[in-house]
Amino acid sequence: MTGKFDVNVLFNHWDRFLEGFIHTVESSIIALIGSFILGTIIAVMRISPYKPLNWIGTVYVEFIRNIPVLLVTFFFFLGLPSLGIPIGGFTAGTLGLMVYTASFIAECVRAGIQSVPFGQTEAARATGLTYMQTMLHVVLPQSIKIVLPSIGNQFINLVKNSSILAVVAGLDLMYYADLINADTFLPLTVYTFVALFYLVLTIPLSIGVHYMERRFSSTDR
Amino acid sequence: MNKRSRLGAFLVLLVVCLVFAGCGSKKESAEKGGTLEAIKARGKVIAGVKYDTKLFGLKDPATGKVEGFDIDIAKALAKKILGDENKVELKEVTSKTRIPLLQNGDIDLIVATMTVTEERKQQVDFSDIYFKAGQSLLVKKGSPIQGLQDLKGVKVLTVKGSTSAKNIREKAPDANVLEFENYQDAFTALKAGQGEVLTTDNAILLGMQQQDPNYVLVGGNFTDEPYGIAIKKGDAEFVKEVNDLLKEMKSSGEYDKLYEQWMGVKPE
């Protein structure tokens, strides 16, 4: 019975599949933008010549990158409300996802920044630009091009990791899949459709990564 | 069919025959007279109990002892029939195995959080109700929520795919039901303030209430799944014996004492 494949499950439970899918997309987009900005800030801090900033950046990356995303999410889901900050499962899951992914993006961006020849920084500083101006106008624009493919890979991971929302009742695709499975007892069908929903999001990202890889490798230098 | 597979088939047949022969002989011995005579002749009560259920029948991994409300009722029965509460042998049963074990005569009775249902009454006889089980609500002490009527727009936590989730959606359609992986996760979320109410069987909620007395059950049961003691079908004599025991325990106050000892609250 559990091995039976029944296409009607998709139509009978379309509302819940769709609601879950929309929440997954929302959470992914918010976390994607947030982690990109946060990750870039952390990367700049990490290679900053100012020791305290450098130290904060390094601690952030080494701490967050080396613990499970579930744990980061539980911190927001269980920790913040007990400190008097009421956030629900969706927000907690999205924050967890963002903070976690930012640590990986920070490492990608740092590698990108460091691949821009140091002479560029020296030249920019010599013209009178501050460290921040040098980063914003000279180094980052060049390095982003280099690191876009690897950041794209992190975004693919982010979309897949968004399934942790299911554990904190974040109403995402995986959460509703668990409920539909409990109602229908057709796990093979339910989770196959869930896989397809995730592929709808991740395959375009994957194609984008390939495109960027080809484009930047042919036009650069 | 080649020789090897034929031999295999023969062996399987042989094993099946032996197993059935074993079952048959057991059945015979148990059917001689009623369960009550069998217990008296044997000098002990064999009770099928749960080993994994908090408050009712739980094996303590440190001491290896099985303890709980169900166990104490089995002991009381041994005391009534044989005059010694220690003359009881506990056998672990699960919801799946308990009826076959009773029908085989491996156990004299089932005291294992068993809900009385019409379907089960076709297979076994039940004693009077000894625990009013049903779905209830757990809230933080002092919460304004006192029952199903207060759940409009309230976050109610329960477990994914459980009957409790279905029941609460039916009984309180305006509640915002959030489902978690298991009861411990749901209770942790309740404690973290991710919801105002946790709903499931009162037996599980009573266990949580003992774990953290800041949380209390409210509103009574809104489903009816009472526990009874199951006895082999047709053994009216033994059913009466068990019912007499429950009556005696209730009038002597022993039932209330045991209930309070295990559930942490007085019976309703």
From TrEMBL, chain A:
Belongs to the binding-protein-dependent transport system permease family. The chain crosses the membrane at residues 20-45, 57-77, 83-106, 158-177, 189-212. It is a multi-pass membrane protein. PANTHER family: GLUTAMINE ABC TRANSPORTER PERMEASE PROTEIN GLNM-RELATED, MEMBRANE COMPONENT OF AMINO ACID ABC TRANSPORTER. It is found in: Cell membrane. Residues 21-209 form the ABC transmembrane type-1 domain. One of its GO terms (molecular function) is transmembrane transporter activity. It comes from Paenibacillus dendrobii. This is ABC transporter permease subunit.
From TrEMBL, chain B:
The keyword Signal applies. Pfam families: SBP_bac_3. Residues 44-266 form the Solute-binding protein family 3/N-terminal domain. Transmembrane segments: none annotated. GO terms for biological process: amino acid transport. CDD domains: PBP2_BsGlnH. Residues 1-21 form the signal peptide. Keywords: Signal, Transport. Belongs to the bacterial solute-binding protein 3 family. This is Transporter substrate-binding domain-containing protein. It comes from Paenibacillus dendrobii.
